[in-house]
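Ticket closed. Logging final result for DUF2254 domain-containing protein.
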Amino acid sequence: MKRTRLRLRQTTQEFWFIPAVMTALALILAEAGISTEEAYGVPDGLSFVYSGGETGSRNLLSAIAGSSIGVAGTVFSITIAALSYAAGSMGPRLLDNFTRDRGNQLTLGTFIATFAFSLYTLRAVTGSQDQPFVPHYNVTFALVLAIASVAMLVYYLAHVTGSINITHVANLLRNDMRDSLMSATQKEDPNRDLAVAPPPAFWQGGEVLHAPSGGYLQLLDHDLLLGRADEANVALLLHVRPGDYVFPNSVIAVGVPRLPDGVMDALTLGDRRTVGQDLEYSVRQLAEVAARALSPGVNDPVTAIDVIDRFGDALCSLQDRRWPDGVYYQDHQLRLVVPVTDFDGLTNTMFNMIRQYGKGSPSVMLRMLEVFRTTASCLKDDERRAAIRRHARLVYEDALANTANSGDRADIEKRYRELLDTLANGQDAEVKAAAQHAVQQAQGNRVR
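Final structure:
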């Protein structure tokens, strides 16, 4: 069932889906309007309905059909240009965010539906002397669609320029990342029992499952795997997690004492990574935007700083949430162990690439240390604070090694010391520093 929902969601997000549905509906409405008028005619009281003759309706429908398909071609051209810009400046993996955009799909669908409706109606106009027929309802509705097309064109021009704005893209990716984080983590429960996985020796001698084909693991149905393992009264260890590339004939699961039936039914493989269970994919998309911004050809540290801020936002939202254990029991019997993303892995994906590409930019390094400091004041868990300390140390060392200016080096050392104070003293140091900063600002305002 989850696999079916995944495929259905992927299909409905395709760029062609909404235009195809709107075109089909337009053809159905055109036929319904023609049939209704043939059966009942047009009441005299409906003054708003088109009342022209055969020649006028033909000319009108031809003009609407020709102009709508012409503007649709222009919309296609603008879309391709926007996609080319996005692929060049923000990375080809972000193209899905533009093709999945409902505004782009609705605009294209409106023009194609107008063309299909007008063309289908045009074929019903007859000018014979014995039995002339003009589908007045349809001509009226075609006029409505033409006006709607003009409105959609104005909307689209504003929408497409906003959709390729880097801040807008960063916010979209931030929302995807936050949704994935909330789905992957759970509310902290101090009374819960910590599930512990058995040692590696437990799985020795178990039955091994080799991957029949290759591809990215897009979806893992935990409930189905847990149910199959419980029915077979076995323990199952999975070696892959969503986002991993599964190589053909590689070991992906071990069952003790044997494998349950239908393990592959719970694993959905595909040609590309998808947002959802693959938490690191959403993070990598944002990290790639920052890495491209820091490349010598672009040299845009402001965009990298925007991305760092979004990462800090995501980490602070994890204050009261925990990672799943990846260990599942049924009736006190071990049934399933799956690998999961942890806080260390998440921060590695967030900051390693940015640090490596931005080590020569003092402004980026300073902002990373500032975000680490704020994040350290939000997080209470010692392991997570240790991960922040480790990344801060890496940033500090790389920044000093690649910064020659004495003033910039002094700023980096100051930010690093403030971070260490926050890690050592908790929120008290952060509150004290904020108070001192406010006092300094007030004093500066009085001097001015």
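The chain is about 65% helix and 10% strand. No further action required.
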